[in-house]
Amino acid sequence: MKQSFAIIGLGRFGASVCTALIEAGQEVLAIDRDEDRVNEYMDIATHAIVANAQDEMALRSLGLRNFDHVIIAIGEDIQASILVTLMAKEMGVTRITAKAQNTYHAKVLEKVGADRVVHPERDMGERVAHQLISKNILDYLELSDEYSIAEIQISNDKFADKSLLQLNLRQKFGLNVIAIRRKNQRLIVSPPADEVVLLNDVLFVIGETKDVEHMDDVMN
Ligand code: ADP
């Protein structure tokens, strides 16, 4: 379904969100106070406008309330990011996603009304670190402070050629398998208990991050 997005700030993060949304067939209004940035995205975004979002009149004239999502991708200028989030909330924007530079910034953004706060540098750093430490965890997505979805590759004979029932990951590690990716096959979504896991299969598991790490340790 086509949705409408307004992105304020076309730095590296905002620009990459803009490009990905357009590639996914969505409608994007791109806003930046820097004319050169806006010119760069004129032909990429659905619409691109030069505006200083900190200026309340300018922000009001954008009609942000009419968008399904507003993304505040102002990075360096933390004060501007907080003020624009606050004003967007006061204008009645339904879904605000804001980019935080650090933990304190994130807390303030949540307080002033961001529905979702993202920390791209921190999150990517954590993902890369996990991938570097473990040869089994190919990727992982943090759902909250405690829970994650991880892609774990079965690299150990002890785990291979056994059904999910026999592996019993729920009892042993507190993890649920939501899908299996097998070479040259379609993704097996919600695998049945009698599905036999093969060497080099990738399991998508959901559970507490500490339990994912425990399973990874046991497999190493
Ligand atoms: P990143 O780390 O994602 O590259 P930057 O801080 O470098 O983020 O970029 C943020 C962008 O937001 C810049 O293009 C900047 O011009 C824009 N920006 C900053 N403040 C405002 C504002 N008040 N109104 C509109 N755009 C802004």
From TrEMBL:
Gene Ontology MF terms in the entry: monoatomic cation transmembrane transporter activity
Domain of life of the organism encoding this protein: Bacteria
UniProt cross-references to InterPro entries, sorted A to Z: NAD(P)-bd_dom_sf, RCK_C, RCK_C_sf, RCK_N, Trk_Ktr_HKT_K-transport
SUPFAM superfamilies: NAD(P)-binding Rossmann-fold domains, TrkA C-terminal domain-like
Organism: Vagococcus elongatus
One record GO biological process: potassium ion transport
Domain called RCK N-terminal: residue spans: 2-118
Protein name: Potassium transporter Trk
Domain RCK C-terminal: 135-220
Residue ranges the record marks as coiled coil: none
PANTHER family documented for this protein: KTR SYSTEM POTASSIUM UPTAKE PROTEIN C, POTASSIUM CHANNEL PROTEIN 2-RELATED-RELATED
Gene3D superfamilies according to UniProt: NAD(P)-binding Rossmann-like Domain, Regulator of K+ conductance, C-terminal domain
